[in-house]
Write a structure and sequence with these properties.
The chain is α+β, with helices and mostly antiparallel strands. The protein has helices at about 10-15, 20-30, 125-130, 150-160, 195-200, 235-240, and strands at about 5-10, 35, 40, 45, 55, 60, 70-75, 105, 115-120, 140-145, 160, 165, 170-180, 180-190, 205-215, 220, 230. Strands 7, 8, 9, 10, 13, 14, 15, 16 and 17 form a 9-stranded mixed β-sheet that branches. The protein has a 4-stranded antiparallel β-sheet with strand order 3-2-5-6. Strand 11 (about 160) and strand 12 (about 165) form a beta hairpin.
């Protein structure tokens, strides 16, 4: 049997749309995966075409190359970015339930945020998009209260200390100013947990609305809330391009 037929177990599970590689590793560590009747371990390799792989008692087959899907969802507020939730909250899985392939989210948006969220069943694509060294920027439209000063913008752009380390330089542009309300466009090159909300809180700003409008060169556009569409081949190529071209807000 040719060695080229063997792949890491977590890659096979990701390629078959079971979960991302990281989640697949969690399943393996939890003892939920068996290969040919034996509980699998991290580091195991399998032949997807011959080995019998079971996840929680369900056979996972690699007999045919999976059909890869690359999905853009306009996530509404009120949905958590998980495929299931033990607390019974609304999940983004409900919004992509009509997709026959088993896709999973690439990265996340918190429950109160909205906008562009990617899904795929291509583990390599997901890894490249989420890897910190990929440096893919993300653009957000953020409504804050009450007012924003030049000094606040400078702090955002120069970096602030979160969890003991400084954030990467951001780009901020004022879209509109009204009494007690400012709309900003913010470009980030990293994605720490609730980063924009936490930075705004440190500056004494309340986030009234946060919407992601672009990931790299791919924009949300006019996609309606709660709707999804397939990425075009050109959009997938733009996201996979290395290195990602720099972006400056205008």
């Amino acid at each position: 049997m040719a060695n080229s037929n063997y792949v890491r177990l977590q890659k096979m599970l990701a390629d078959c749309g079971v979960a991302s590689r990281r989640k697949a590793e969690d399943l393996i560590r939890a003892g939920s995966v068996k290969v040919n009747g034996v509980v699998a371990e991290i580091g195991d390799k399998v032949n997807p075409y011959k080995d019998k792989v079971m996840v929680n008692g369900r056979r996972i087959t690699g007999n045919a190359r999976p059909k890869y899907r690359y999905i853009m969802l306009n996530k509404p507020r009120g949905y958590v970015t998980t495929m299931s939730d033990e607390k019974g909250r609304k999940c983004v899985a409900e919004l992509v339930a009509d997709i026959p392939e088993r896709v999973y989210p690439v990265g996340r948006l918190d429950r109160d945020s909205e906008g562009m969220l990617l899904f795929t069943n291509d583990g390599d694509f997901a890894n490249k998009i989420m890897h910190p060294k990929k440096d893919i920027y993300k653009v957000y439209r953020v409504t804050v209260r009450p007012a924003v000063t030049d000094e606040m913008i400078a702090e955002f752009e120069n970096g602030m200390i979160l969890d003991g380390r400084k954030t990467a330089p951001a780009e901020v542009r004022v879209i509109t100013r009204q009494e007690g309300r400012v709309v900003l466009e913010i470009l980030l090159r990293e994605g720490r947990n609730r980063q924009i909300r936490r930075m705004c809180e440190m500056l004494g700003l309340e986030v009234a609305r946060l919407r992601r409008t672009a990931i790299g060169q791919v924009k949300l556009g006019m996609l309606k809330k709660g709707d999804w569409r397939d990425l075009t081949e050109e959009e997938v190529k733009k996201l996979m391009a290395d290195p990602n071209p720099s972006r400056h807000l205008q």
